[in-house]
Design a protein that fits this description.
Strand 2 and strand 3 form a beta hairpin. The chain is built from four helices and three strands; from the N terminus they run αααβββα. It has a domain of about 70 residues. The protein has a three-stranded antiparallel beta sheet with strand order 1-2-3, with helices on one face. The radius of gyration is 20 Å and the shape is extended. The longest helix is centred in the last third of the chain and has 17 residues. By secondary structure, it is an alpha+beta fold.
Amino acid sequence: MTATYQTLLSNAFLRAELDNEYQSFRNTTAEAGLLARLRKWAAKEFQKETSAEIAFVNVFFEETWGYTQSGNVSKPDGYTCFPKFPVPGAGAGGSSGEADAALGVFGRDDVPPTPKCCANLKTFVQTWMVRRNARARTAHQ
């Protein structure tokens, strides 16, 4: 398929940059740590979303990607991961809801607590069931 726009960075450039990054990461203690975390997570006992949520945030958002939660850093620095972030109007019927986690800068006086990204964590089975049920509703309507 031909692109109808001109990209800022070429695919070849991006591949080269990512390859350089991967080559410098390869065979390091960071790679070994990541592989160990992935293996442990893959072998863990099945839990429902709400039971696995805290562990997922700790293993991936904190240990893997370096986000911090309140209480894990000094107060003036703020924190970057806000579990169970309240989202007004996102609940059923327009009531208050919550994101499973929000990423941004929180807990600092000089930065408003506006998330840059909100995460809604779902298991594969939950996602599959929602899609299957939506298809079934569409087929029956």
